Amino acid sequence: MNFFRDRDANSDVFDDPKNDPTAASPSTSPRKKQKFDIGPPGNSTLDTADDDAALASLRKRMAGPSSAKAGLAKDQDEINKIIYEVSKGSKFFENERKKDAQTTERINALLARRDQKLLQVPPGSNEWLSIERKIEDLATRLENSRDLSRTILHTDIDMFYAAVELARDPSLKGKCFGVGSGVLVTASYEARKYGARSGMATFVAKALCPHLIVVKNDMQSYVEASQKVMAVFEQYDENLAKASLDEAYLDITEYIEQHGGTIDQIVQQLRDQVRSETQLTVSVGIAPNTMLAKISSDRNKPDGQFRVQPDRKAIVDFMRDLPCRKIPGIGRVNERILESLGVSTCGEIWNKRVELWLALDGKIEWLIKAHLGIGNTVVEPSKREERKSVGREHTFNPTADTQALLDLLKESAQRVEQDLERLDFKGKTITLVAKKDNYQRFSRARTSTRLVHRAEELYDITSSLLLQEIEREGALSLRLIGVRVTHLVDLRGAAAGEERLRKLFQTRQSNGEAQGEEAAQVRPRKTAHEWQQEEERQLALAIKQSLEGNGDPFQEVHDLSQDDATTQVREASPTIALALSKSDEAGPSAPLPSSNAAAQCPICIKPIQGSNDQLNAHIDACLNQSQLDPPSRASPQPPPSHRADSASAPKKKRGPLDSFVRRSNK
């Protein structure tokens, strides 16, 4: 089969700047346009070489991001030609051509900047040697951070979606089939030999493999199958990091220490367990870090395992001839940029380290790490705070029907609400995402003043954004539409904060209750009789201090409820309490008065003999008698001798009980 380039069919196609992917942007100044010219005007040989390079670049780009997946045919160039011819003239083709032209312009600017710096920093100059020393210091620092102590796995379920469909329909075994609708999500290994792979349009896949069987995808079945496999993985590392439905990272260092056995035996055991429990096969990469494990899992696909030994020399040798495209994070654009700088393999990174430093403004640490084979050694589940958005999209045949687009948008909003409720998130920024029929994506966003998660609110905002876009641009023919929520707020985090506050208050309350219970145990609640005795004790103490002339009879009574031995005796009877007070004044050797000792009445100043009840009855009688006496009646005068004694004796200080008695006598 012969394949013709589009310039062979139309020799003027690349003469039009609009169609030339290497042409400068219309906004580029004439000086910059001249800088990008490779040869003098009219040099048809160089122009043809440029066209060939641009065509090869475009063909490689159209191969897609999954062109390096395991199981694909070896003759990738032949596949690229078929994809190019089948896609030519379509809107997808024009969109890819435009993007490739933008990448070419970016590369030209990058090379121009590098060449300008090379004029200032020629090889062998002091500046050149200084940059080399900086890079060597960087490599030394990275080398010192190398950790070879962990055993990390990258597990990849073989042709996952196709394998699930094969388990449901064994008749597909050995046949070329793909899973998807419009775009394939995966292809069987038989179909991959013809070039069909994930992310490829169905019509392109059928052009590569005419007898391809397309099976409609069933996401619920894939989720259930993934959960079964992950349950097996969790037996080896409960803190595994799930990368997708069919990929995960595990750190089995502790598992090996606890259960024994060699690393290869444990990995083989894991793969056998997955096969027996789920009827699926898994390929495993084994290495000291996640980057090497990811690369290794692709080495022995399908249903195999590959190990990179935890040795520096073995790792550097492994990376030396590895294509840069195999490094996670290096896609087709970065691959083109590195190739334009003379770097195709990881080993060439070190050879071109100074040029890379100059071209990339010194930001080459990630490349040096790739060259050395140094990656992340921490495996842990993704953290909720790392989630940036929650969204849903619908892909469909291109349509300009506004009502149909609104219906799809409403369905997306409903699914986003379900996801937000399931994940316990709300958000402030709502984004309309869409892709035109020419594969050009665009988005429009609006930020709310409050948290949003209801489908009605999501739909109201995104539908208004869509209608505004239609009003501004005219009728829109879209092939994808969706809703995305960003600036998320974690409701579980907020609930956790509220729970912590609630527990804090409960703890303080329980502590207070416990202290109250302890106090109640130390000081039991008094009965009515005990309170009466307490009042009698206080009255007797007040009488005593009033007779002695103390200003405040309660000043020295700090806690009347302390049940010490003396207090218990005092509580037995105010009479005894008064006697004890007298004995305290007399000294420890003074004898206790007998129970029939006389006590002086504070009203009539008469000695009263008898019990406590008799003393109280006498005081009450004196108080009542003083209230019954008429105000004009003169108080009885004491005998002359008593008056003389009173005059000669120092004046006694009055107490509060005296004031009480005086008020009672009025």
Automatic annotation (TrEMBL):
Residue ranges of the region described as Disordered: 1-51, 623-666
Residue ranges occupied by any UmuC domain in the UniProt entry: 152-331
Alphabetized InterPro entries for the sequence: DNA/RNA_pol_sf, DNA_pol_Y-fam_lit_finger_sf, DNA_pol_Y-fam_little_finger, DNA_polymerase-Y, DNApol_IV, PolY_HhH_motif, Rev_trsase/Diguanyl_cyclase, UmuC
Cellular component annotations (GO), alphabetically ordered: nucleus
Coiled coil: none
Pfam families linked: IMS, IMS_C, IMS_HHH
Biased composition (Basic and acidic residues): 1-19
Family statement drawn from the similarity comment of this UniProt entry: Belongs to the DNA polymerase type-Y family.
HAMAP family: DNApol_IV
Xref: PANTHER family: DNA POLYMERASE KAPPA, DNA REPAIR POLYMERASE UMUC / TRANSFERASE FAMILY MEMBER
Protein name in UniProt: DNA polymerase kappa
Source organism (scientific name): Kalmanozyma brasiliensis (strain GHG001) (Yeast)
